[in-house]
Amino acid sequence: MNDTTISRVYLRNLSIAPRKVRVVVDRIRGKRVEEALNLLQFITKLGAEPVRKLLDSAIANARNNQGLDVDSLYVKTVFVDQADMLKRWIPRAQGRATKILKKNSHVTLELGVK
What we know:
Blueprint: E1 5-14, H1 18-28, H2 33-42, H3 48-65, E2 73-82, E3 86-91, E4 97-102, E5 105-113
Antiparallel strand pairs: 1-5, 2-5, 3-4
């Protein structure tokens, strides 16, 4: 069985917190491409749409650059890392301020051939 990485795509600085995107990518890890696209279509989380577009891009790269059939592809690796944070302040009582951290994500997706 040939188990090599065919297509690797990145999504940088997605403005959704990593823990929210990990819920979505954990559902598609190791699945066939058709099954992963079907799952992402019906997941109601905010991170499902950007991950679906990323998967579509990886499929297009594999089809156009290597000339592979989509039926033989599966999601080999997908993971989410934390990107830079936007640091903001909100005023609180008695002259204090509280820090707000707006977290961003980096998503990496690899396709393989079974």
